[in-house]
Amino acid sequence: MSAATLGALFPEAGAAEADRPVAGLTADSRNVVPGGVFVAVPGTKADGRLFAAKAAAAGAIAVAGEG
Questions:
Q1: Would you say 2 and 21 are in contact if contact means Cβ atoms under 8 Å apart?
Q2: Based on C-alpha coordinates, what's the Rg of the chain?
Q3: Nearest Cα to Cα of residue 52 among 13, 8, 3
Q4: How many CA atoms lie within 13 A of 38 on its CB side?
Q5: Most buried pick, 1, 13, 25, 41, via CB within 10 A?
Q6: Rounded to the nearest 5°, which phi and psi values hold at 24?
């Protein structure tokens, strides 16, 4: 999947780099890889939205979340 595909699926998220491939998808910020997407959702122990900056620093090209 490419970032452009994500952009088409979620246009409210803003523009995405057309040819950049998505390297992975995870809801655990500790597992973000460069070029990956972090899904930031509230969990039973922690709120994933609090880790969006950490995911970006780890190389996430996008963060998906609620709220």
A1: yes
A2: 11
A3: 13
A4: 27
A5: 25
A6: 175, 170
Q: Mind listing the pLDDT tens digit for each residue in 2-52?
A: 767 767 776 666 655 556 788 999 999 999 999 999 999 998 999 999 999
More confident residue, 54 or 9: 54
Name the DSSP letter for residue 67. -
For residues 15 and 2, the answer to whether their CB atoms sit within 8 Å is no
CA angle 38, 52, 32 (to 5 degrees): 40
Q: What is the pLDDT of residue 53?
A: 95
Look at the block and give the residue holding tokens 């491939």. Answer: 21
Please state the pTM of the whole predicted model.
0.75
Task: State the CATH number of the domain containing residue 34.
Answer: 3.40.1390.10
**14 in a structural domain:** no
